[in-house]
Amino acid sequence: MAKINLEINGEKRVVDVDPNTPVLWVLRDHLNLVGTKYGCGMAQCGACTIHLDGTAVRSCVLPVSTVENKQITTIEGLSEKGDHPVQQAWLEHDVAQCGYCQAGQIMNAAALLKSNSNPSDVEIESAMNGNICRCATYLRIKAAIKSAAQS
Amino acid sequence: MTQVKTPMNRRSFLKVSALAGGGMMLSFSWLAGCKPTPEEVSNLSKEWFELNSYIKIGDNGVVTLMAPNPEFGSNVKTSLPMMLAEELDIDWKNVIVEQADFYPERFDRQFTGGSLAMQMAWKPLRTAGATARHMLVQAAAKAWQVPAGEITTKDGMLYHEASGKEAGYGEIASQAAGLPVPEEVPLKKVGDFKIIGNSKKNVEGLNIVTGKPLFTLDHKQEGMLIAMIAHPPAFGQKVKAVDDSAARSMPGIKDVFIIKTLEEGYVRNGFDTTSFTELVVVVGNTTWEVMNAKKALKVEWEKISDSTVTVAGWGGNQQTVTIPAGLESTQGHLAKMAEMAKKPGKELRKDGDPEGAFKKAAKVIERTYTAPFLAHNCMEPVNCFAHVTAEKAEIIGPIQAPESIMQTLTARLDMPKEKIHIKLARMGGGFGQRAYGHHLVEAAVISQKLKAPVKLVYSREDDMTYGIYRPTYTATYKAALDENNNMIAYQVKAGGIPESPLGFAQNRFPAGAVDNYLAEEWALNSNITIGAFRAPRSNFLGGVEQSFLDEVAELAGKDPIEFRLELLERAKRKPVGKQNDYDPDRYAGVLKLVKDKSDWKRGKSDVHRGVSAYFCHNTYVAEVVELLMKENKPVVEKVYAAVDCGVVVNPDAATNMAEGGIVDGIGNALFGEMTFQDGVPQKSNFETYRMIRHSEAPKSIEVHFVKSEADPTGLGEPLFPPIFGALANALYRATGQRKYNQPFLQDKQPLV
To answer: Which stretches make up the 2Fe-2S ferredoxin-type domain (chain A) (predicted)?
Structure first.
């Protein structure tokens, strides 16, 4: 166990955990930030996507000891009231079916638009390929990303 | 307007008597954990008056509608309350939707599956809405001393034109709550609908995009422990001995023990799976600690012997199911299925003289198809919260069929059902898998033993290797054409491990459209467990039958749509047999619609096209796939779907569901496969189990609904089966190769 200093959604947090604990479980079990989802535990499905210094990363394989003094953003911190352009576009296109993977999809999409404000279809597909949606809402996700890029 | 009788049985009496007192406070979404905002609080009613178990009206006119069915993503939490709201005649903006707990005394049919929600709720929920509206009108008539027949309603307001009196529902609700329930109420005509047929956004949309705790896996409460299970690595094995010394000494670990989830001699119901019933359980403080301790378990497994279990079938018939010993492999399954396909099967339907017709045929074609076991792979792995004490059991779980598992829980916990409370959490996918509530029993048994609240969490690997798979199937089709290329005989022999796909489908098209017809089936036992998977059985039959018909049309030198339309015309004009379970006009209707919308007649040189049409789960679907090959891989450019599901309750959500079924179908057709070696599932996570991903989805999908006033039917399943066929037929046009074995692509490499 070790005390780890974290900065999550703009707030300083300290956790006392095994330093190997993936950030996903620190968020979910220790900090009660459960918007970030567990899907595979091996960075294959994207449900656990968060931003680390603005870049999309899979939190399920990211040891908490490696993120000290870095800025973490989770779905809860993407916007105050769900008014981030990507969240708004998701609502406009009524993307979700079961909704479980969507936080990861949204975090990945938000990071994509930050680095590429007007992605092509191929760029969207390529950037989003690591995020599985079992309900298969891929077309709406793509449409929502395009809408968000316009706004 | 149609007059319908309101069901005045014990259930409605309970509904009414429970509410007569009114004044129930709104309990905010129990799991959402999202406290109402100050703005929301200021809008909250001080008092709520319950008009029936589905409808509460606040003194300020805000209406709470209960969503009775468990939500797994088909959007019933939005579309079912739309039915209530329509007949209640309220403004959708003033509606709060609340998820009902499992409470069969108050709610009808709390089951999600079989694409049945729209169909089964259509009358009861509209009646509940109309009944409440009627009571409000009666109360206003009494208060205003005017005839009820002169009162009109609109958007949550009551009006009496002659006297100029008007009032909101909130002002009248307290008086309406005590009134008797009418014996008959009028329902609106389809043409008068204002809410039904107009797209409403998912009521959980904002909670989903902001990451609110909606799912069981997100639930947390004081003193809650985390439990994980270890099940045998192979089907055909059980626990022999456990060395838990290393696991026990790991940080955060509270206990390690073995549970038995079903007692010997327990008579199972159809949703009690025969998967592993003896499990090693590790309990600790946090998920990561328990995951690590589980890896440190040393479990010795042993082979099972042949055994039997008793299952209570539908209609009270008990049957004995044999679970054979042995460690099974995919190669063995394929060999056994090929052998069985050569033997006569059990006859399910026979018309005319198929044998004679085949003898005198000008052309005969025979083809055999196979499909593998499939895992559901819901994005939310299996999990469940339970807190069982001597007094009561509180369970929160992702469960499609709470009623079935309630029976299991009462038997296993030895508690009357009145003491067991199941809350229906939003499910992170279901697809049939979550109809099997073994995880509720497991969590409850663990909690009962620990005397503590516990959340049971499956790893992805536990989830994928637990069973309840779509069975592996094979089918051999044979057709005969006469010298004029008319289909004179058609035969199907289908079977699977451990279930035949054909048992409910022998009366489907093209039965009824051909003079000589034979359907036969067989099944072989297995210890690999199966369960419902999006459009059970149809998910195989729809695809392969539609591939076969494409090949028969080609042999006959006919356009595949015209060939099917000819057969449907025959089924309409002079049907063979009386048991045919489809309406040839509605079937032909979707084919004609897809033909029109896809511009089928105009040849397209830039894409390869395939068509299919199937009727299952009470909805008619025709689909056209357009694809091209890039670097030897198919790229689906466009899919057209024509759908006849009667009245479309929530059109944009219906389109979403249709798109999902199509993309999911393409994914499973191209990649979906679970294989076995010596009983061990060969895939346990997404690095080997290929799921369709963004870049592989069709580039666009057009969904067209047949305009209809027929009662609505469902959409969760019907779009899924035929896409396998349309895709196979398009692939044939693109490559010259027919696809007889699923998955169509053998590329197992992960993309990330």
So the answer is: 2-78
Indicate whether B112 and B26 sit together in one domain.
yes
d(CA B54, CA B95): 12
**What's the CATH code of the domain at B430?**
3.30.365.10
Give residue B396's pLDDT: 98
Q: Work out how many domains chain A is built from and give that number.
A: 2
At residue B620, the 3 state secondary structure works out as strand
Give how many domains chain B has, as a whole number: 3
Contact B750 A132 (CB under 8 A): no
CB spacing of B204 vs A99 below 8 angstroms: yes
For chain A, how many residues are written?
A: 151
Alpha-carbon gap, residue B667 to B574, rounded angstroms: 39
Domain holding A133, by residue range, is 85-150
Task: Give residue B602's pLDDT.
Answer: 86
Q: Please, are residues B167 and B155 in contact by the beta-carbon 8 Å criterion?
A: no
B631 — alpha (psi -120 to 50), left (phi > 0) or beta? left
Which domain, by its residues, includes B183? 2-209
Q: Is residue B51 part of a domain?
A: yes
Distance CA B706, CA B293 (A): 56
Report residue B32's pLDDT band, with 50, 70 and 90 as the boundaries: very low
Query: Is residue A106 domain-shared with residue A68, that is, in the same domain?
Result: no
What is the complex's ipTM, to 2 decimals? Answer: 0.99
| Dihedral Cα A98, A99, A100, A106, nearest 10 deg | 150
H or E element, residue B312: strand B307-312
- The answer to whether residues B168 and B265 belong to one domain is no
Residue B381 in contact with partner chain A when CB distance is under 8 A: yes
Cβ atoms B668, B741 nearer than 8 A: no
How much of chain B is in helix, strand and coil states, percent to nearest 5? 30, 25, 40
Q: Quick one: A142 and A112 in the same domain?
A: yes
Do A134 and A110 lie in a common domain? yes
- Residue pair B460/B685 in contact by the 8 Å Cβ criterion: yes
**Residue pLDDT, tens place only, B96-106:** 999 999 999 89
Residue type, B714: G
The answer to whether the CB of B572 falls within 8 A of the CB of B584 is yes
Distance of CA B622 to CAs A116, B550, B641, Å? 39, 13, 6
Q: How far is CA B203 from the centre of its chain?
A: 20
Q: In Å, how far is A69's CA from the nearest CA of chain B?
A: 22
Q: Which of B217, B655, B662, B203 is nearest to B428 (CA)?
A: B217
Instruction: Tell me, yes or no, whether B268 and B287 share the same domain.
Output: yes
pLDDT single digits (tens) B413-431: 999 999 999 999 999 999 9
| Same-domain check for residues A47 and A91 | no
Q: Are both A73 and A89 inside the same structural domain?
A: no
Last residue of a domain, one of A48, A77, A106: A77
- Strand segments, DSSP code E, in B393-552 are 393-397, 420-424, 454-457, 472-481, 487-497, 516-523
| Count of all residues that appear for chain B in the document | 752
Q: Which residues in B539-569 are b (16+ Cβ under 10 Å) and which e? A: bbbbbbbbbbbbbbbbbbebbbbebbbbbbe
Q: Is the pLDDT of residue B385 over 80?
A: yes
Q: For residues B101 and B70, give the distance between their C-alpha atoms in angstroms, rounded to a whole number.
A: 9
Q: Do residues A21 and A72 share a domain?
A: yes
Q: Tell me which chain A residues have a C-beta less than 8 angstroms from the C-beta of B381.
A: 38-39
Provide the chain A residues 60-89 that lie in CB contact (below 8 A) with chain B: 74-76, 78-79, 81-82, 87
